[in-house]
TrEMBL record:
Keywords: Membrane, Mitochondrion, Mitochondrion inner membrane, Transmembrane, Transmembrane helix
PROSITE patterns in UniProt: LETM1_RBD
Compartment(s): Mitochondrion inner membrane
Domain Letm1 RBD: 186-360
Transmembrane segments annotated in the record for this chain: 138-161
Pfam assignment, any one: LETM1_RBD
PANTHER family to which the protein is assigned, alphabetical: LETM1 DOMAIN-CONTAINING PROTEIN 1, LEUCINE ZIPPER-EF-HAND CONTAINING TRANSMEMBRANE PROTEIN
Membrane topology: Single-pass membrane protein
UniProt protein name: Letm1 RBD domain-containing protein
The keyword Transmembrane helix is assigned to this record: yes
Amino acid sequence: MALSRVCWARAALWGSAVPPGLYVVRRLQFVRSGLTWGAPRSSKLHLSPKADVKSLISYVVTKAKVINGKYHRFLGRHFPRFYVLYTIFMKGLQMFWADAKKARRIKTNMWKHNIKFHQLPYREMEHLRQFRRDVTKCLFLGILSIPPFANYLVFLLMYLFPRQLLIQHFWTAKQQIDFLDIYHALRKQSHPEILCYLEKVVPLISDAGLQWHMTELCAKMQHGTHPAVHDILALRECFANHPLGMDQLRALQMKALSRAMLLTPYLPSVLLRHRLKTHTTVIHQLDKALAKLGVGQLTAQEVKSACYLRGLNSTHIAEERCRTWLGEWLQISCSLKETELSLLLHNVVLLSINYVGSRR
């Protein structure tokens, strides 16, 4: 009886007599169609704080990119020369930062797996070698910037002397060619001096056959002939001991060889010998790793960089000739023992001085 009164009361409220079952179905239909009491809840209320932070960061990054693009267009229109320098500087910073991260990954991998430098693949060895040289140059700039307000002077010096103070990442394409030519001209000045020393030591060679080979080699050098690989390897004994062994080189010889390797010659004899030994050993290790990889696996830029490091001015030589020359170098280098590395040091001059296209 009570249930019947409730049903009739509900029916009166809806304006018609509706059975209880129909009322429940009708109520469910209203709920499903969204006609419930109160405003619908916003979907934003269901976002987590972490999602809100991500959306905010995305918004800020997007706005920053838009502002940066406008700033670049403004510089390009009103200050074109400064914009070129600015672009090169920013790209250089990005490349240097990428090099730093790669070097860190390599060093971390070496530490985790107890790998030595000479056990690395060729590209990783070369990356670490070049990065160390770049960091040394950057540290020098950092030291100059330490005094108060000295950073303004450093920026001026970087603009006036980019070859001496900046690494290759901050050079323009034209500067890279010009500066490499300048560096090669500087090391080329030491070539006659090194050949003169080789002629002077001929009487000091005890073996008559080696004396004849050395005289023939020097004569070929003087007449502009490129020596064959076997002509150079025939003299390996002379460079293992007296008079041309690494420990028997005189101070003036080491200064000339340092200039040929683009190393500073203004150091005491002990330091000069140590630097030449270290530099030649690293090149010898690189050569062994490169022989495992194969010259054919290198890109054109990698081939030219490898040749330039070993004494050849590869900026004006065709890629195929560079590959041929690098193959000759590896044939000599991989045949030498650690006690004969003085020959590898002199090979910077012997193999490059008369090569076709390198006399610039």
